[in-house]
Amino acid sequence: MKKKTILGIVVASILVLCIIMVCIMWKSKADAIVFVEDNIIEYGSKITSKELVKQSKGEILEYPKLNTKKLGKQKLTYKVKYSFGSKAITHEVIIKDTQKPIIDLKQEKITILQGDSFDPEENIKGVKDVVDGALNKVKETVPGSYTVSSKVDIDTIGTYEVEIVAHDIHNNRSTKKYKVIVEEKSSNPTEYGNENEAKPYYVNGILLVNKKHALPRTFGGYNEEANQALAKLQTAASLEGYDLPTLSAYRSYDYQAGLYNDYVARDGKEAADRYSAQPGKSEHQTGLAFDIGQLDDSFGETPAGKWLAQHAHEYGFIIRYPKGKEHITGYMYEPWHVRYLGIDTATSVYQSGLTLEEYLNDY
């Protein structure tokens, strides 16, 4: 009887000890995975749930999916295997947007002549946010938009500043400024030609703009057809692994005047005339010309530049200023400058191997 009692006590003790051990082991599972200390993750980052784990006491059978493009709290459940069983471990992270909006300017400084028209938005290439996308201009600051502040007096000579302030929907704020120099009109201004007498020049229905054929001041603007064609070209390039961002599009007569004057002041008229058009003589004023890719002569030798040269016509564009043709086009080689003609005409010009002036027999 005593032996049975003793045996029962021993068995009971072992069972109790086992239960205690199991409880201790299960309790230790709370620390089975050690996570990185910072549980705040930047929106859009490429981090994975696996990278959040510093160490694990068991084998992680399954890593949860982490969606860094979903703002707010996320509960991640890890399935962990132990020698004595398995259990789900939960870890909470917070996806936040702390990135400031991006303000892209065409130039850090522009020059206009006294009395010329001036639109401060013409120098803004774009304002966008990683979460909100493109931001819209408003008069008063609200989340998800930007404002433009300008005190430029076009009638008074001096240096002014334009300020762009952008706020995304999570109140991240960025600011960018550029200078505007208003110069006195010379009594002997650079001869651009009579802007009022100039008329758009067409050959076989194709608009030709160059040093011989100028546009009137009021001609041109945003061209929907050309911009849609450009978007298709850029999408096609992206699918092939090439990035062809828009660097410059439509420019008004007055904007081109400021740009050209800056180049003349920097490099002299003779040099500037090789790469910059006088106002009224720029294809950008038509809304049919774009600078894309990189503003570098070597761009034409890059994979993206070669792809553009070989496929631009499929979307209605030509490389307007090809290499070795400066004596015909009037401008140095620009592998980034494309001109919209429509698919049929662009393909015909491309297959001819000629410049637009040669193709139209007008040079």
Explain how this protein is built.
- The model has no long low-confidence stretch (mean pLDDT 87).
- By secondary structure, the chain is α+β, with helices and mostly antiparallel strands.
- The strands form six sheets. The protein has a five-stranded mixed beta sheet with strand order 8-14-13-12-11. It has a four-stranded mixed beta sheet with strand order 2-6-5-4, with no helix packed on it. A four-stranded antiparallel beta sheet has the order 17-18-20-19.
- 25% of the residues lie in helices and 29% in strands.
- The chain crosses the membrane at residues 6-26.
- Pfam families: VanY (PF02557).
- Residues 223-342 form the D-alanyl-D-alanine carboxypeptidase-like core domain.
What's a quick, concise take on this entry?
25% of the residues lie in helices and 29% in strands. The chain has 363 residues and is of the alpha+beta class. It has a five-stranded mixed beta sheet.
